[in-house]
Design a protein that fits this description.
Length: 206
């Protein structure tokens, strides 16, 4: 499996290109901006990006989706529960002086019952509300792409509309912490960690 990380957008969000080396099928997890290096890597490696997958609908994770969808000839998937969040993207960016033609558009909505794959590799969709109501994590083999649900030594903020610390705590303690301890956690911001490390050292949710 190929994993490439790109830090993009105004709040330095992590975007991840994940590909099956055999079939050359790939997904892009979160899409914070048009990223030329990512486009070049897709061409150089001969990849077919099947989906852009949103972990949640906040502007800093979705603002590049419309243009990258066209660049990569792919489709955009995410939770319907975060549609209201995504529809605030243009308004938020305008308040920051960043132009955007239109809000990001979904092609399909997904949830924990959705069946996704790249080649023979399963992508497990895990619903983790709390940071937003429609928060999703993606488990691909032993890698968890956690968006803004779980960070190294921290969790996502819950003081924005749609946030709930009680739901986030449940998502982390009773869902993510049930995964194998050696699962690597690749978050939406910051450094890679592991489930074992967070269970031991994350003082916010332990």
């Amino acid at each position: 499996m190929i994993i490439k990380q790109y830090i993009a957008g105004p709040i330095d969000a992590n975007n991840y290109l994940v590909a099956d080396e055999v079939s050359k099928e790939a997904v892009l997890i979160d899409c914070s901006d048009r990223t030329q290096k990512l486009i070049d890597d897709v061409k150089e490696l001969g990849l077919k990006v099947k989906h852009i997958l949103f972990t949640h609908g906040h502007f800093d994770h979705v603002m590049g989706a419309n243009i990258m969808k066209e660049e990569l000839n792919t489709e955009v998937l995410g939770s319907e529960k975060d549609l209201e969040q995504t529809d605030l993207t243009k308004t938020i960016l305008q308040s920051m002086g960043i132009p955007l033609i239109e809000d990001p558009k979904y092609d399909r909505f997904i949830d924990e019952n959705s069946k996704l794959n790249i080649g023979d590799i399963e992508i497990k969709v895990i619903e983790t509300p709390g940071h937003t109501e429609g928060g999703l994590c993606y488990l691909i083999e032993d890698k968890l792409f956690s968006g803004d649900t779980l960070f190294k030594n921290c969790v996502g903020r819950t003081d924005l509309p749609g946030g709930s610390f009680a739901k986030l705590e449940n998502s982390v303690k009773n869902v993510l912490y049930k995964l194998d301890d050696m699962t690597q956690v690749l978050p939406g911001h910051g450094d890679i960690t592991t489930i074992a490390y967070e269970k031991k050292f994350n003082e916010i949710v332990r």
